[in-house]
Amino acid sequence: MKLYSKIKTRPEDFVVEEVPLLKPEDEGKYHLLELKKRDVSTLEALRIISRLEKIPLKDIGFAGLKDRYAVTTQYLTVPVEYSLEESCYKIVRNRWVKVDKVNFDKEMGFCIKPIGKVNRPLGLGDLKGNKFTVVVRNFEKNLRERFYRNYEVVRRYGFPNYFGEQRFGSVKSRDDFVLRYLLRGDFDGALKSYFFGKSQIDFWGDWKKLYKTLSPALEEYEKDLIRGLMRGLTPEKAFRILPKNVRLMFNFAFQSFLWNEFLREYVEEKYPFVRVPFINKWKLSYFLEVYDVDYLIQLQIPYTGREFRVNDEVLKGIMKKVFRKYGIKEEWFDKEVGGIIVMTDGLRKAVVFPEGFKILEKTKRSMKLTFTLPPGSYATVLLRFLLKGKI
């Protein structure tokens, strides 16, 4: 299956609009900015704003990471001491520069626009939801029939609230988890995984050659990390050169994988299900029928169960099984590693329902649809089921 052969054939086929919680006012301690981007990740846009506008990255607040290969609109906050005007940015002669405008129908780039002021910064999850407008292409007859049949399941029972592939693509490699090395205290392995995943590399340890080989594609902080190794820093000290939000992504990615495994095993244990292809040859399992829908709608699954105790005996057994399978030790919960606290607890809803689901346009070969999902839920997870993995 070719990833995104049905959706995201063009960035403008996948439009995401943040539904904000904060309302702009005339006065406040923070500027509220609208960020519109095409074919750029949220973190990349923030790093460019930080560098070109001389604003520390830690002072830029945002509610969530939006898809790269899409046209997305979201909101940022920065303290009022920074003066910002409406600005656009794109790559010119291999460098990011300010420009007068970006053509969001065909150009890679982004624009920011001040829309007012607020009295607090935005934080992760600080939004009502996300509205999606998606064009499905190559929408042949048998796929169309499957789509309507699967949507009836979603309408009645919702869909499993798995983390989508974006959660695992925010670090260098999707085929390995940096956190697994960190938990064992193997910072050298963690750095190797960060740069190369599971790929074999014969010049690891030759930091000058590593720098020369990778430098053209590296962020500045990644260059600083390798320069630190060249100066003789230990892998642990060099690892701490990575920005905190990047280091936290390693934790989020692995915990999201484990949480997906909890939910997948739970669905397979309790309900008739179908397995759908996911990234890295992983699978996601979707229920086809639910006999205790009122219970499932209320079910929240913890990340570790240390703070939020599990009363569901089936779920409790599954979490122990998954932790055992991946060698997770309780002593790692809430552990400080590399300047971050890892394996923290929290709750996430097992199922969600799309709101405002509508088919806007139909042809023999395509369909345009719209829907809204709550914060932290993934349109691609819904679409994988509706299209049985053929996205």
Could you name the key traits of this structure?
ten-stranded mixed beta sheet; 11 helices; 18 strands; two-stranded antiparallel sheet; Alpha-Beta Plaits
Question: CATH class of the largest domain, anyone?
Answer: Alpha Beta
Instruction: Give the CATH topology of the largest domain.
Output: Pseudouridine synthase
| Largest β sheet strand count, sense and barrel closure | 10 strands, mixed
Q: Mean of residue pLDDT?
A: 92
Radius of gyration: 22 Å
Q: Helix and strand string, N-terminal first?
A: EEHEEEEEEHEHHHHHHEEHEHEEEEEEH
Apparent shape: globular
What class would the helix/strand composition place it in?
alpha+beta
Helix content: 25-40%
CATH architecture of the largest domain: 2-Layer Sandwich
> What's the CATH superfamily of the largest domain, by name?
TruD, catalytic domain
Count the strands?
18
Structure annotation, total helices: 11
Distance between the termini: 8 Å
The unreliable regions are: none
Q: How many structural domains? A: 3
Question: Can you characterise this structure?
Answer:
Keywords: Isomerase, tRNA processing. Responsible for synthesis of pseudouridine from uracil-13 in transfer RNAs. This is tRNA pseudouridine synthase D. One of its GO terms (biological process) is tRNA pseudouridine synthesis. InterPro entries: PsdUridine_synth_cat_dom_sf, PsdUridine_synth_TruD, PsdUridine_synth_TruD_CS, PsdUridine_synth_TruD_insert, TruD_catalytic. The protein has 11 helices and 18 strands. Helix 5 runs antiparallel to helix 6 and helix 8 crosses helix 10. The chain folds into 3 domains: 104 residues, 2-Layer Sandwich (Alpha-Beta Plaits); 169 residues, 2-Layer Sandwich (Pseudouridine synthase); 62 residues, no CATH class. The termini are close together. It has 391 residues and is an alpha+beta fold. It is globular, with a radius of gyration of 22 Å. Helices cover 31% and strands 26% of the residues. Strands 1, 2, 3, 4, 5, 6, 7, 8, 17 and 18 form a 10-stranded mixed β-sheet that branches. It has a two-stranded antiparallel sheet with strand order 9-16.
